[in-house]
Amino acid sequence: MTHTLRRWTGALAACALIGLAGCGQPQPAGGRDHVRIALNWFPEPEHGGFYAALVHGYYQEAGLDVEILPGGPDVPLLQQVAAGQVTFGVENADLILIGRAAGVPVQSVLAPIQVSPRCIMVHEESGITRLEDLRDLTLAMSPQNPFYHYLLRRVPLTGVTVVPYPGSVARFLVDKNYGQQGYVFSEPLLARREGARPRSLLLSEIGFNPYTSTLFCTDELARTRPDLVRRVVAASIRGWQQYLRDPAATQRRLQELNPEMTPDVLAGGLEALRPLVLPAGSRPESIGRMSAARWDELLAQLEECGVVPGGKTTAAAAYSLDFLPVPAGE
Amino acid sequence: MKRRWLPPLLVLAGGLLLWEGLVASFQPPAYLLPAPHQVALAAFRHAPALLGATAWTALAAAGGFLLSMSLGLLIALLFSQSETLRRGCYPYAIFLQTVPIVAVAPLIIIWFGTGMGSVVLVSFIISLFPVITNGTAGLLRVDPALLDLFRLYRASRLQVLLRLRLPHAVPYLVAAARISSGLSVIGAIVGEFFAGYGSGRQGLGYLITLTSGQLKTEYLFACVLASAGLGLVIFWSVGRVGDTVLRKWQEER
User: Fold this and answer.
1) Which of A168, A187, A206 is the last residue of a domain?
2) What is the domain count for chain A?
3) CA of A170: which chain B residue's CA is closest?
4) Position A47 in a domain
5) Are residues A149 and A287 in the same domain?
6) Which residues of A touch B210 (CB under 8 A)?
7) Interchain pair A102, B30: CB under 8 A
8) Tens-digit pLDDT profile for chain A (330 aa)?
């Protein structure tokens, strides 16, 4: 989540999408289905498993010809998928629910990152160790992010000046009285590399925990090509297992695609990511699972803090468990 | 008066009807393109937030605009006095025109922090160039015969500047003010993307970020209309002041 240059292009690009529907439908190419997966950000460890599936040929083995399209700030990803320009997208669960509430017919089919990496990064010197203790500092967050509204609602934030997220850690480095949003495996590592002593406070610790980097597609694709969706999901899970087991080749690819991610940052990032993909007690075979209870809870939270108007969508419409592999012995 | 207002109103009504008709016949999803009545409803529902945000943005834009006019004129005066200075600095003034503000704005925030000051500064940077370039042109493109006349009467440099060059530059400066006023609104909104005013005080840039990120497209369109409206009001006010100045200027000639 670095170098955001927030541009006012989302709406324009969305308008440009009208009438382009249909061109991203999977096309059989040389016997393989051509599938385009668009990311919600520049390639970073949170997309590692998808790249691993590509780098190690798992998609190919599943009869898929996959192309991964890196994202960036304000790419209208949900709209692109809904318009059929790309076959799948990778986006966080809260954004999927926002999309559903706005009428975008997409659903999540795989949730590789179980614990949200979203954090507020403060300086160790501030003495702040819990989100509840955030006070008397400048806090940079993007207002379009649902966690922003959740935090504002749950934590008093006495004496806190909320400012827009500048897209880098530069300001953080020069101001000890400054905190900012981040992903635990990205911003804190960049800040540490520059000599700061950051402390990450996870939003999941105060209960806001959307599945992260979920794979999603249109309702139509899920209905008409369930087999294709199942193959993409299965190969992606293999990719995530491989990324946690032996990441070397994937990390090299990520670094080529996003030079900002130096090898040390990528290595540290993977270590921070590992417990989020595999929380204590879970096994590699169960990577990607989702639970109805968590989707329900997330929707209730978004409605509570006014991000999603009540009654616009049900949680059940935003995901499907049909494409996850049936675990052995169940 | 009626004649002046009628054509734009007709164009507006026609445009809205066409838009409403297109949406009604093609029925694109509202998150891609809402109908005008949906936008109007959103604007009505969020009127307090919209008006508050517009007021903040207006304040920042006005600050940026006034700074541009005063500092721009000062720079133009200096440029008109020394050819060396002009030749040396003008290429860098052009830099202001071409600098991608989205790249520089984050740095401004790092250097100067968030808050009204930084938003005004971004607005100022974006709206400064037309004042420098038009002002300099106006101060320099003086009838050589008149210059000779002033020289003949042994007018001082200051007299030439105040009595000949400055009055001559007035129409140029009025034109610059019109261009600059619209740019100052854009600058303020871009500034707000990166710098806020602090908790609770939110400009249009904040609302645009929020609504586009959360797919609240009707509300987003309402924000865009509010910024367009703000631009029009500022442009119109500057135009009125400009007209008055020009009329006085012509009478004095």
Assistant:
1) A206
2) 2
3) B110
4) yes
5) no
6) 143-144
7) yes
8) 433 333 334 433 444 444 444 445 666 656 789 999 999 988 999 999 999 999 999 999 999 999 999 988 778 899 999 999 999 999 999 999 999 999 999 999 999 999 999 999 999 999 999 999 999 999 999 888 999 999 999 999 999 988 888 778 888 998 999 999 999 988 999 899 889 999 999 999 999 999 999 999 999 999 999 999 999 999 999 999 999 999 999 999 999 998 888 898 899 999 999 999 999 888 888 999 999 999 999 999 999 999 999 889 999 999 999 999 976 544
Residues 46-105 in B contacting A (C-alpha not used; CB under 8 Å):
102-103
Same structural domain for residues A235 and A181?
no
Residues A157 and A300 in one domain: no
To probe the interface with A, which of B19, B22, B31, B204 has the most A CB atoms within 10 Å? B31
Say whether residue B29 is in contact with chain A using an 8 A CB cutoff.
yes
Q: Which of B190, B212, B220 to mutate to test the interface with A (most CBs of A within 10 A)?
A: B212
Nearest CA in chain A to B217: A11
- Pair (A228, A296) in one structural domain: yes
ipTM over 0.85: no
**Same domain as A215, residue A109:** yes
A144 contacts on B by Cβ (under 8 Å): 209-210, 212-214
**HSE-CB for B212 with a 13 A CA cutoff:** 26
Q: Find chain A residues with C-beta within 8 A of B198's C-beta.
A: 161-163
Domain match, A157 and A79 both: no
| Domain closes at, from A159, A191, A206 | A206
* Smallest Cα distance from B206 to chain A, Å: 7
Q: What is the pTM of this model?
A: 0.82
Q: For residue A327, is it within any domain?
A: no
A328, part of any domain: no
